[in-house]
What we know:
2 copies of one chain form a homodimer. Chain A is an alpha+beta fold. Chain A contains 4 helices and 10 strands. In chain A, the strands form 2 sheets. In chain A, strands 1, 2, 3, 4, 5, 6 and 7 form a 7-stranded mixed beta sheet that branches. Chain A has a 3-stranded antiparallel beta sheet with strand order 8-10-9. Chain A has 2 domains: 7-145, Nucleoside Triphosphate Pyrophosphohydrolase; 155-210, Arc Repressor Mutant, subunit A (Orthogonal Bundle).
Amino acid sequence: xxxxxxxxxxxxxxxxxxRREPGAEGPRIMLPLVRRTRDPHEGQWAxxxxxxxxxxxxxxxxxxxxxxxxxxxxxYLEQLYAFGDVxxxxxxxxxxxxxxxxxxxxxxxxxxxNVAWFxxxxxxxxxxxxxxxVDYALWRLRxxxxxxxxxxGFLPDLFSLADLREVYxxxxxxxxxxxxxxxxxxxxxxxxxxxxxxxxxxxxxRLYRYNHDVELADRGPLPHGKxxx
Amino acid sequence: xxxxxxxxxxxxxxxxxxRREPGAEGPRIMLPLVRRTRDPHEGQWAxxxxxxxxxxxxxxxxxxxxxxxxxxxxxYLEQLYAFGDVxxxxxxxxxxxxxxxxxxxxxxxxxxxNVAWFxxxxxxxxxxxxxxxVDYALWRLRxxxxxxxxxxGFLPDLFSLADLREVYxxxxxxxxxxxxxxxxxxxxxxxxxxxxxxxxxxxxxRLYRYNHDVELADRGPLPHGKxxx
Lengths: 229, 229
Protein backbone atom coordinates (compact mmCIF):
# COMPACT_ATOMS: atom_id res chain seq x y z
CA UNK A 1 0.00 0.00 0.00
CA UNK A 2 1.45 3.33 -1.03
CA UNK A 3 0.85 6.25 1.28
CA UNK A 4 1.37 9.57 -0.45
CA UNK A 5 1.97 12.52 1.86
CA UNK A 6 -1.06 14.80 1.76
CA UNK A 7 0.46 17.42 4.05
CA UNK A 8 4.00 18.82 4.05
CA UNK A 9 5.68 21.07 6.60
CA UNK A 10 7.68 24.14 5.66
CA UNK A 11 9.54 26.63 7.84
CA UNK A 12 9.78 30.30 6.83
CA UNK A 13 11.16 33.35 8.59
CA UNK A 14 10.22 37.02 8.66
CA UNK A 15 13.51 38.87 9.23
CA UNK A 16 13.20 42.46 10.34
CA UNK A 17 16.05 44.92 10.30
CA UNK A 18 16.24 48.69 10.47
CA ARG A 19 18.01 50.14 7.46
CA ARG A 20 18.91 53.70 6.74
CA GLU A 21 18.71 55.03 3.22
CA PRO A 22 20.78 58.04 2.14
CA GLY A 23 18.77 61.23 2.58
CA ALA A 24 15.97 59.57 4.57
CA GLU A 25 14.95 61.14 7.88
CA GLY A 26 15.20 57.98 9.96
CA PRO A 27 15.65 54.23 9.52
CA ARG A 28 12.88 52.05 8.10
CA ILE A 29 11.80 48.50 8.94
CA MET A 30 13.05 46.35 6.10
CA LEU A 31 12.96 42.62 5.44
CA PRO A 32 14.83 40.39 2.99
CA LEU A 33 12.78 38.46 0.43
CA VAL A 34 13.78 35.73 -1.99
CA ARG A 35 12.66 35.59 -5.62
CA ARG A 36 11.11 32.21 -6.39
CA THR A 37 12.84 30.32 -9.18
CA ARG A 38 10.16 27.66 -9.65
CA ASP A 39 6.43 27.17 -9.58
CA PRO A 40 4.13 27.85 -7.83
CA HIS A 41 4.50 31.64 -7.96
CA GLU A 42 7.72 31.53 -10.04
CA GLY A 43 9.30 34.98 -10.25
CA GLN A 44 7.39 36.37 -7.23
CA TRP A 45 9.06 37.40 -4.01
CA ALA A 46 8.61 35.22 -0.93
CA UNK A 47 9.83 34.81 2.63
CA UNK A 48 13.10 32.88 3.02
CA UNK A 49 12.50 29.30 4.10
CA UNK A 50 12.35 25.68 3.04
CA UNK A 51 10.99 22.25 3.86
CA UNK A 52 11.36 20.97 7.40
CA UNK A 53 14.26 18.49 7.52
CA UNK A 54 13.18 15.33 9.40
CA UNK A 55 16.52 15.41 11.27
CA UNK A 56 16.19 19.02 12.43
CA UNK A 57 14.15 20.78 15.09
CA UNK A 58 11.90 23.56 13.81
CA UNK A 59 14.20 26.33 14.98
CA UNK A 60 17.21 24.61 13.42
CA UNK A 61 15.51 24.55 10.03
CA UNK A 62 14.62 28.23 10.47
CA UNK A 63 18.26 29.13 11.20
CA UNK A 64 19.64 26.97 8.42
CA UNK A 65 17.32 28.17 5.66
CA UNK A 66 17.89 31.72 6.85
CA UNK A 67 21.66 31.30 6.50
CA UNK A 68 21.39 29.48 3.17
CA UNK A 69 19.13 32.00 1.50
CA UNK A 70 20.33 35.28 3.01
CA UNK A 71 23.62 34.61 4.83
CA UNK A 72 22.12 36.23 7.93
CA UNK A 73 22.38 35.13 11.57
CA UNK A 74 19.67 36.71 13.72
CA UNK A 75 20.08 38.47 17.07
CA TYR A 76 16.60 37.28 18.04
CA LEU A 77 14.56 34.34 16.75
CA GLU A 78 11.10 33.38 17.92
CA GLN A 79 8.26 31.27 16.59
CA LEU A 80 5.52 33.49 15.17
CA TYR A 81 2.65 31.25 14.15
CA ALA A 82 1.72 28.12 12.19
CA PHE A 83 -0.16 28.98 9.00
CA GLY A 84 -2.06 26.02 7.60
CA ASP A 85 -5.21 27.11 5.78
CA VAL A 86 -6.42 24.69 3.13
CA UNK A 87 -6.10 27.00 0.13
CA UNK A 88 -2.84 28.81 0.87
CA UNK A 89 -0.80 26.71 -1.59
CA UNK A 90 -1.63 24.36 -4.51
CA UNK A 91 -0.58 21.40 -2.32
CA UNK A 92 -1.40 21.26 1.39
CA UNK A 93 1.47 22.98 3.19
CA UNK A 94 1.64 23.90 6.88
CA UNK A 95 4.21 26.67 7.33
CA UNK A 96 5.74 27.14 10.76
CA UNK A 97 6.80 30.77 10.62
CA UNK A 98 9.54 32.30 12.75
CA UNK A 99 10.37 35.94 13.09
CA UNK A 100 13.86 37.27 13.58
CA UNK A 101 15.62 40.55 14.21
CA UNK A 102 19.03 41.39 12.78
CA UNK A 103 21.22 44.33 13.67
CA UNK A 104 21.68 47.26 11.33
CA UNK A 105 25.30 46.49 10.49
CA UNK A 106 24.74 43.13 8.80
CA UNK A 107 24.78 42.73 5.04
CA UNK A 108 23.24 40.14 2.77
CA UNK A 109 25.64 37.62 1.29
CA UNK A 110 26.87 39.31 -1.90
CA UNK A 111 26.52 36.16 -4.02
CA UNK A 112 22.76 36.09 -3.63
CA UNK A 113 21.24 37.61 -6.75
CA ASN A 114 17.70 36.57 -5.88
CA VAL A 115 17.59 38.22 -2.47
CA ALA A 116 16.73 41.86 -1.80
CA TRP A 117 15.56 44.12 1.03
CA PHE A 118 12.03 45.52 0.97
CA UNK A 119 10.25 48.13 3.06
CA UNK A 120 8.03 46.03 5.35
CA UNK A 121 5.19 48.54 5.16
CA UNK A 122 5.19 48.87 1.34
CA UNK A 123 5.53 45.38 -0.11
CA UNK A 124 4.63 44.20 -3.61
CA UNK A 125 2.25 41.26 -3.94
CA UNK A 126 4.15 38.29 -2.49
CA UNK A 127 3.81 34.56 -3.17
CA UNK A 128 1.25 32.49 -1.24
CA UNK A 129 -0.17 34.23 1.88
CA UNK A 130 3.15 35.90 2.68
CA UNK A 131 1.74 39.47 2.69
CA UNK A 132 -0.66 38.36 5.41
CA UNK A 133 2.17 36.71 7.34
CA VAL A 134 4.34 39.85 7.23
CA ASP A 135 1.39 41.96 8.42
CA TYR A 136 0.94 39.65 11.38
CA ALA A 137 4.68 39.75 12.19
CA LEU A 138 4.63 43.56 12.08
CA TRP A 139 1.66 43.58 14.45
CA ARG A 140 3.53 41.26 16.84
CA LEU A 141 6.64 43.47 16.70
CA ARG A 142 4.66 46.66 17.43
CA UNK A 143 2.81 44.93 20.22
CA UNK A 144 5.93 43.48 21.79
CA UNK A 145 7.86 46.74 21.78
CA UNK A 146 5.34 48.02 24.32
CA UNK A 147 6.03 45.41 27.00
CA UNK A 148 9.53 44.05 26.32
CA UNK A 149 13.03 45.17 25.42
CA UNK A 150 12.76 43.70 21.92
CA UNK A 151 13.98 46.98 20.37
CA UNK A 152 17.51 46.15 21.47
CA GLY A 153 17.56 43.30 18.97
CA PHE A 154 18.00 45.94 16.25
CA LEU A 155 20.95 47.74 17.86
CA PRO A 156 24.70 47.16 18.07
CA ASP A 157 26.37 46.70 21.47
CA LEU A 158 26.86 50.43 22.03
CA PHE A 159 24.20 52.94 21.05
CA SER A 160 22.98 56.40 21.93
CA LEU A 161 19.56 57.23 23.33
CA ALA A 162 18.77 58.86 19.97
CA ASP A 163 19.58 55.55 18.24
CA LEU A 164 17.19 53.73 20.57
CA ARG A 165 14.48 56.34 20.06
CA GLU A 166 14.81 55.98 16.28
CA VAL A 167 14.21 52.24 16.63
CA TYR A 168 11.01 52.87 18.59
CA UNK A 169 9.91 55.51 16.09
CA UNK A 170 10.48 53.18 13.14
CA UNK A 171 8.57 50.33 14.78
CA UNK A 172 5.67 52.45 15.99
CA UNK A 173 5.55 54.61 12.87
CA UNK A 174 5.41 57.92 14.75
CA UNK A 175 7.71 60.52 16.34
CA UNK A 176 8.43 60.41 20.08
CA UNK A 177 9.30 63.37 22.27
CA UNK A 178 13.08 63.11 22.99
CA UNK A 179 12.88 64.43 26.58
CA UNK A 180 9.99 62.15 27.55
CA UNK A 181 11.70 59.20 25.92
CA UNK A 182 14.96 59.84 27.79
CA UNK A 183 13.09 60.04 31.09
CA UNK A 184 11.18 56.80 30.51
CA UNK A 185 14.28 54.86 29.48
CA UNK A 186 16.33 56.15 32.40
CA UNK A 187 13.58 55.16 34.82
CA UNK A 188 13.37 51.62 33.41
CA UNK A 189 16.96 50.73 34.47
CA UNK A 190 17.47 48.48 31.45
CA UNK A 191 20.40 50.51 30.08
CA UNK A 192 23.90 50.95 31.46
CA UNK A 193 25.66 54.25 30.57
CA UNK A 194 29.27 53.87 29.39
CA UNK A 195 32.12 56.40 29.36
CA UNK A 196 32.15 56.41 25.57
CA UNK A 197 30.68 59.12 23.40
CA UNK A 198 29.91 59.40 19.74
CA UNK A 199 31.24 62.60 18.21
CA UNK A 200 30.40 64.06 14.86
CA UNK A 201 28.42 66.97 13.49
CA UNK A 202 26.26 67.14 16.61
CA UNK A 203 27.27 67.53 20.22
CA UNK A 204 28.81 64.34 21.67
CA UNK A 205 26.22 61.67 22.53
CA ARG A 206 26.83 59.29 25.39
CA LEU A 207 26.76 55.63 24.40
CA TYR A 208 24.82 53.06 26.40
CA ARG A 209 24.85 49.34 26.50
CA TYR A 210 22.07 46.94 27.21
CA ASN A 211 21.81 45.40 30.68
CA HIS A 212 22.45 41.71 29.92
CA ASP A 213 20.95 40.64 33.24
CA VAL A 214 17.54 41.28 31.70
CA GLU A 215 16.08 39.02 29.03
CA LEU A 216 15.38 40.50 25.61
CA ALA A 217 11.85 39.14 25.76
CA ASP A 218 10.30 36.74 28.22
CA ARG A 219 9.43 33.56 26.37
CA GLY A 220 8.50 31.59 29.45
CA PRO A 221 9.39 27.93 29.77
CA LEU A 222 10.16 27.46 26.06
CA PRO A 223 13.69 26.34 25.19
CA HIS A 224 15.98 29.17 24.21
CA GLY A 225 17.64 28.80 20.85
CA LYS A 226 20.57 30.36 19.13
CA UNK A 227 19.99 33.90 20.21
CA UNK A 228 22.51 36.29 21.61
CA UNK A 229 20.64 39.10 23.36
CA UNK B 1 8.78 6.14 -6.92
CA UNK B 2 7.24 5.73 -3.48
CA UNK B 3 7.45 8.67 -1.14
CA UNK B 4 6.81 7.77 2.46
CA UNK B 5 5.79 10.63 4.71
CA UNK B 6 8.61 11.31 7.15
CA UNK B 7 6.72 14.07 8.99
CA UNK B 8 3.10 14.09 10.08
CA UNK B 9 1.04 16.94 11.49
CA UNK B 10 -1.16 16.61 14.56
CA UNK B 11 -3.39 19.16 16.28
CA UNK B 12 -3.88 19.08 20.06
CA UNK B 13 -5.64 21.39 22.47
CA UNK B 14 -5.05 22.45 26.06
CA UNK B 15 -8.52 23.16 27.46
CA UNK B 16 -8.62 25.14 30.67
CA UNK B 17 -11.68 25.44 32.85
CA UNK B 18 -12.22 26.51 36.44
CA ARG B 19 -13.90 23.79 38.48
CA ARG B 20 -15.07 23.90 42.02
CA GLU B 21 -14.75 20.85 44.23
CA PRO B 22 -17.02 20.37 47.27
CA GLY B 23 -15.34 21.78 50.36
CA ALA B 24 -12.53 23.54 48.47
CA GLU B 25 -11.90 27.22 49.20
CA GLY B 26 -12.00 28.39 45.59
CA PRO B 27 -12.07 27.00 42.06
CA ARG B 28 -9.02 25.36 40.51
CA ILE B 29 -7.69 25.39 36.96
CA MET B 30 -8.53 22.02 35.49
CA LEU B 31 -8.06 20.47 32.06
CA PRO B 32 -9.52 17.38 30.40
CA LEU B 33 -7.14 14.64 29.34
CA VAL B 34 -7.72 11.53 27.24
CA ARG B 35 -6.33 8.12 28.10
CA ARG B 36 -4.43 6.67 25.14
CA THR B 37 -5.78 3.34 23.89
CA ARG B 38 -2.84 2.49 21.64
CA ASP B 39 0.91 2.79 21.41
CA PRO B 40 2.99 4.85 21.78
CA HIS B 41 2.28 5.61 25.43
CA GLU B 42 -0.75 3.28 25.64
CA GLY B 43 -2.61 3.79 28.92
CA GLN B 44 -1.06 7.20 29.63
CA TRP B 45 -3.04 10.43 29.69
CA ALA B 46 -2.61 12.89 26.85
CA UNK B 47 -4.04 16.12 25.46
CA UNK B 48 -7.13 15.72 23.27
CA UNK B 49 -6.29 15.94 19.59
CA UNK B 50 -5.75 14.03 16.37
CA UNK B 51 -4.15 14.11 12.95
CA UNK B 52 -4.65 17.19 10.81
CA UNK B 53 -7.31 16.44 8.19
CA UNK B 54 -6.09 17.56 4.72
CA UNK B 55 -9.54 19.07 4.09
CA UNK B 56 -9.63 21.12 7.31
CA UNK B 57 -7.95 24.31 8.47
CA UNK B 58 -5.86 23.94 11.63
CA UNK B 59 -8.48 25.55 13.85
CA UNK B 60 -11.22 23.35 12.37
CA UNK B 61 -9.28 20.22 13.29
CA UNK B 62 -8.76 21.63 16.79
CA UNK B 63 -12.50 22.25 17.23
CA UNK B 64 -13.50 18.90 15.74
CA UNK B 65 -11.11 16.73 17.78
CA UNK B 66 -12.08 18.71 20.86
CA UNK B 67 -15.76 17.93 20.28
CA UNK B 68 -15.10 14.27 19.39
CA UNK B 69 -12.95 13.51 22.41
CA UNK B 70 -14.54 15.64 25.10
CA UNK B 71 -17.87 16.95 23.76
CA UNK B 72 -16.74 20.47 24.65
CA UNK B 73 -17.14 23.69 22.64
CA UNK B 74 -14.76 26.39 23.82
CA UNK B 75 -15.56 30.02 24.65
CA TYR B 76 -12.07 30.97 23.51
CA LEU B 77 -9.70 29.19 21.13
CA GLU B 78 -6.25 30.41 20.13
CA GLN B 79 -3.15 28.86 18.63
CA LEU B 80 -0.53 28.30 21.32
CA TYR B 81 2.61 27.02 19.62
CA ALA B 82 3.94 24.44 17.17
CA PHE B 83 5.95 21.75 18.93
CA GLY B 84 8.22 19.84 16.55
CA ASP B 85 11.37 18.65 18.27
CA VAL B 86 12.97 15.60 16.69
CA UNK B 87 12.69 13.25 19.66
CA UNK B 88 9.21 14.10 20.97
CA UNK B 89 7.55 11.03 19.45
CA UNK B 90 8.79 7.70 17.96
CA UNK B 91 7.86 9.00 14.49
CA UNK B 92 8.42 12.61 13.48
CA UNK B 93 5.29 14.52 14.48
CA UNK B 94 4.77 18.29 14.44
CA UNK B 95 1.94 19.15 16.82
CA UNK B 96 0.14 22.43 16.29
CA UNK B 97 -1.23 23.11 19.76
CA UNK B 98 -4.25 25.29 20.51
CA UNK B 99 -5.41 26.44 23.88
CA UNK B 100 -9.03 26.93 24.81
CA UNK B 101 -11.14 28.17 27.68
CA UNK B 102 -14.49 26.69 28.62
CA UNK B 103 -17.00 28.07 31.08
CA UNK B 104 -17.55 26.53 34.47
CA UNK B 105 -21.01 25.20 33.68
CA UNK B 106 -20.02 22.78 30.90
CA UNK B 107 -19.74 19.06 31.46
CA UNK B 108 -17.84 16.36 29.64
CA UNK B 109 -19.89 14.07 27.43
CA UNK B 110 -21.01 11.34 29.82
CA UNK B 111 -20.29 8.53 27.35
CA UNK B 112 -16.57 9.21 27.40
CA UNK B 113 -14.97 6.72 29.77
CA ASN B 114 -11.43 7.63 28.77
CA VAL B 115 -11.72 11.34 29.50
CA ALA B 116 -11.23 12.95 32.90
CA TRP B 117 -10.46 16.34 34.44
CA PHE B 118 -7.08 16.95 36.06
CA UNK B 119 -5.69 19.78 38.17
CA UNK B 120 -3.46 21.67 35.72
CA UNK B 121 -0.86 22.36 38.41
CA UNK B 122 -0.61 18.75 39.69
CA UNK B 123 -0.53 16.46 36.66
CA UNK B 124 0.72 12.89 36.45
CA UNK B 125 3.37 12.05 33.86
CA UNK B 126 1.66 12.54 30.51
CA UNK B 127 2.37 11.01 27.11
CA UNK B 128 4.97 12.60 24.79
CA UNK B 129 6.00 16.16 25.78
CA UNK B 130 2.49 17.04 26.97
CA UNK B 131 3.56 18.06 30.50
CA UNK B 132 5.87 20.62 28.93
CA UNK B 133 3.05 21.83 26.63
CA VAL B 134 0.64 22.29 29.55
CA ASP B 135 3.29 24.23 31.50
CA TYR B 136 3.73 26.55 28.55
CA ALA B 137 -0.04 27.02 28.17
CA LEU B 138 -0.33 27.87 31.89
CA TRP B 139 2.45 30.41 31.53
CA ARG B 140 0.63 31.97 28.54
CA LEU B 141 -2.64 32.10 30.48
CA ARG B 142 -1.03 33.77 33.52
CA UNK B 143 0.77 36.20 31.27
CA UNK B 144 -2.31 37.07 29.26
CA UNK B 145 -4.53 37.68 32.27
CA UNK B 146 -2.33 40.69 33.04
CA UNK B 147 -2.97 42.58 29.82
CA UNK B 148 -6.27 41.26 28.41
CA UNK B 149 -9.78 40.34 29.46
CA UNK B 150 -9.14 36.63 28.97
CA UNK B 151 -10.53 35.83 32.44
CA UNK B 152 -14.04 36.37 31.12
CA GLY B 153 -13.66 33.23 28.99
CA PHE B 154 -14.13 31.23 32.19
CA LEU B 155 -17.34 32.94 33.31
CA PRO B 156 -21.03 32.65 32.45
CA ASP B 157 -22.89 35.66 31.03
CA LEU B 158 -23.75 37.06 34.46
CA PHE B 159 -21.28 36.99 37.32
CA SER B 160 -20.44 38.82 40.52
CA LEU B 161 -17.21 40.68 41.21
CA ALA B 162 -16.33 37.92 43.68
CA ASP B 163 -16.71 35.36 40.86
CA LEU B 164 -14.36 37.37 38.69
CA ARG B 165 -11.86 37.79 41.51
CA GLU B 166 -11.88 34.03 42.11
CA VAL B 167 -10.98 33.51 38.45
CA TYR B 168 -7.99 35.82 38.78
CA UNK B 169 -6.96 34.18 42.03
CA UNK B 170 -7.10 30.70 40.51
CA UNK B 171 -5.06 31.77 37.47
CA UNK B 172 -2.46 33.72 39.42
CA UNK B 173 -2.30 31.26 42.31
CA UNK B 174 -2.60 33.91 45.02
CA UNK B 175 -5.23 35.87 46.96
CA UNK B 176 -6.21 39.38 45.86
CA UNK B 177 -7.51 42.14 48.08
CA UNK B 178 -11.29 42.43 47.40
CA UNK B 179 -11.47 46.23 47.77
CA UNK B 180 -8.47 46.86 45.52
CA UNK B 181 -9.79 44.40 42.98
CA UNK B 182 -13.21 46.08 42.89
CA UNK B 183 -11.60 49.48 42.37
CA UNK B 184 -9.38 48.28 39.52
CA UNK B 185 -12.21 46.51 37.71
CA UNK B 186 -14.59 49.45 38.08
CA UNK B 187 -11.93 51.79 36.69
CA UNK B 188 -11.32 49.58 33.66
CA UNK B 189 -14.87 50.07 32.26
CA UNK B 190 -14.96 46.55 30.84
CA UNK B 191 -17.94 45.45 32.94
CA UNK B 192 -21.56 46.57 32.77
CA UNK B 193 -23.52 46.37 36.04
CA UNK B 194 -26.98 44.79 35.73
CA UNK B 195 -30.04 45.13 37.99
CA UNK B 196 -29.81 41.49 38.96
CA UNK B 197 -28.46 40.19 42.23
CA UNK B 198 -27.43 36.80 43.50
CA UNK B 199 -28.93 36.00 46.87
CA UNK B 200 -27.97 33.21 49.22
CA UNK B 201 -26.17 32.83 52.48
CA UNK B 202 -24.27 36.05 52.01
CA UNK B 203 -25.56 39.55 51.39
CA UNK B 204 -26.92 39.99 47.83
CA UNK B 205 -24.16 40.39 45.23
CA ARG B 206 -24.77 42.52 42.15
CA LEU B 207 -24.31 40.67 38.89
CA TYR B 208 -22.29 42.13 36.03
CA ARG B 209 -22.01 41.31 32.41
CA TYR B 210 -19.09 41.64 30.11
CA ASN B 211 -18.95 44.64 27.76
CA HIS B 212 -19.19 42.95 24.35
CA ASP B 213 -17.85 46.03 22.57
CA VAL B 214 -14.41 45.02 23.85
CA GLU B 215 -12.51 42.04 22.44
CA LEU B 216 -11.70 39.19 24.80
CA ALA B 217 -8.08 39.31 23.67
CA ASP B 218 -6.50 41.23 20.86
CA ARG B 219 -5.20 38.73 18.32
CA GLY B 220 -4.31 41.29 15.69
CA PRO B 221 -4.91 40.62 12.01
CA LEU B 222 -5.35 36.86 12.44
CA PRO B 223 -8.66 35.38 11.33
CA HIS B 224 -11.14 34.99 14.15
CA GLY B 225 -12.48 31.50 14.57
CA LYS B 226 -15.48 29.97 16.23
CA UNK B 227 -15.32 31.89 19.46
CA UNK B 228 -18.13 33.57 21.27
CA UNK B 229 -16.63 36.05 23.71
